[in-house]
Design brief:
eight-stranded mixed sheet, 25% strand, 43% helix, alpha+beta, 18 strands
């Protein structure tokens, strides 16, 4: 089946969209038009946030992936062609282990979440439990030190009083050792007790350092996108409480579930399941795992029982900077997408080249890409600067808190639409350019006046 290729930013693809969705879509079109043809170095999305309303319109921390899903829903309400570019198809097959009957169904997806292996989550939960224990011990020790401090002060006063009594007794009965003192434990014993406590503290510190070293070795493990893809699509055995209902056997049976991609999207979004719910601490936590991603990706596809590979190119990355799931900062790296000029061929040559291209992809060969990608840029709030893939692709190795959260790929054979920005928006862009020009001039005048005022106030430079 063929999907619509209408990926223009024009409204009216769907009848009677929801009012809020239409408003969101309108503001999104304006932002993209200004980014495409405007003069501003950065765009303020305040109007888009206001159109989204509810929790998205405020200043609270929000999840970038959830925001993307909400945005896609609003877009789908107004223009099915746009969202279809991100849509792929899952193929789910369930096989009965008794009669080997296979049932299958398909499901549409707009993004794919890659989970880490189960043992990694268990290790993170174990770390959480150890942290809770350490925290409890530290609180107990702190409480004990505070109580001990109060006791030591009282004990010191008693010792001082007893020392004076000892001195007087020694002067009165000099040479009589059996009457010396009052049974008070000598200072050497007290010091030995302190030494014992110090040794126990050193042992705890050494044990803590060993745990930290072990934890660091575990955190140094590097996962690749391909490895996480294989893990996500590993066959799952359905047994015990998860037994399947076999229509042929007409009862519950042990089986196996396989998930694969049957139709590859033109634009492929990958989300990493970096945040998980920790039962011990009853809160969401972040997994600080290192992920290796490349500028190209080979995605396995299963079509009518035949396996093939679709080649993708990375064009954007969203990074989450922060140690927890409750706070942090998002910034991104992105590059422009362009298309190579189509080669003029006869219909016969065109069909042959298409077959050749498909053969190259199925055999894993290096097919000539349709997509041409530009320079990488770092987008951090209002700061935009040139970057390089080699610089940021392994950023987690130097900054453990900065982990990739979203990856955006474009399929190598993706087709460009004739119109990227609706021409009706060009007037709005020109008006915004004029407004930006006035704002820049006003800032220059303000700085000039402030500079003159500063010079006059301080008497100016010596003549």
């Amino acid at each position: 089946k063929k999907r619509k290729k209408d990926a223009t930013l024009s409204p009216g693809n769907k009848k009677n969209p929801a009012p809020r969705s239409l408003k969101v879509f309108t503001e999104l079109r304006k932002i993209l038009a200004i980014m495409h043809r405007g003069n501003r170095p950065s765009v303020d999305p305040a109007q888009l946030k206001s159109a989204l309303g509810d929790v998205w319109g405020g200043n609270g921390q929000q999840d970038a992936y959830e925001f993307g899903l909400v945005l896609l829903d609003h877009m789908d309400s107004c223009s099915s062609g746009l969202v279809s570019c991100f849509s792929g198809e899952f193929l789910q097959e369930i096989e009965c282990h008794s009669c080997h009957n296979v049932s299958s169904r398909t499901d549409t997806f707009n993004s794919l979440t890659l989970a880490f292996p189960e043992e990694e989550i268990e290790e993170e939960e174990e770390k959480g439990r150890e942290k809770e224990k350490e925290k409890g011990k530290e609180n107990e020790e702190k409480k004990g030190r505070e109580e001990g401090k109060e006791g030591s002060e009282e004990k010191g006063r008693e010792k001082g009083k007893e020392s004076e009594e000892k001195k007087e007794g020694k002067e009165r009965e000099e040479g009589c050792e059996e009457n010396w003192g009052t049974g008070e434990v000598p200072m050497e014993v007290e010091e030995s007790g302190d030494n014992i406590k110090e040794k126990e503290g050193n042992k705890r510190e050494e044990k803590k350092k060993k745990k930290i070293t072990k934890s660091k070795e575990e955190d140094d493990k590097l996962y690749t996108v391909e490895e996480l893809l294989r893990h996500t699509f590993e066959p799952e055995v359905m047994d015990n409480e998860q037994k399947i209902f076999c229509e042929k056997c007409n009862c519950l049976r042990k089986g196996e579930k396989k998930l694969s991609i049957g139709e590859a999207p033109e634009y492929f979004i990958i989300n990493f399941a970096s945040f998980f719910y920790d039962v011990t601490s009853a809160e969401r936590r972040k997994m600080l795992k290192k992920i290796l991603y490349r500028e190209t990706l080979s995605l396995p596809i299963v079509t009518q029982g035949q396996e093939s590979v679709k080649r993708y190119h990375l064009y954007a990355v969203v990074i989450h900077s922060g140690f927890t799931a409750h706070s942090g900062h998002y910034y991104a790296y992105s590059r422009n997408i362009e298309w190579n000029s189509p080669v003029q061929e006869s219909s016969e040559n065109s069909e042959n080249s298409e077959k050749s291209r498909e053969g190259d992809q199925n055999s894993g060969g290096n097919a000539k890409p349709f997509v041409k990608l530009g320079t990488w840029y770092k987008l951090n709030d209002t700061l935009v600067g040139v970057s390089q893939f080699e610089t940021f692709s392994r950023i987690t190795e130097s900054l453990s808190r900065d982990t990739p959260y979203l990856l955006f790929y474009i399929r190598e054979d993706a087709q460009a639409s004739d119109t990227i920005i609706d021409t009706s928006l060009y007037t709005s862009v020109e008006e915004d350019n004029e407004l930006y020009k006035r704002q820049v001039n006003e800032k220059k005048q303000t700085r000039s006046i402030a500079s003159k005022y500063s010079v006059n106030r301080h008497g100016g430079p010596p003549g």
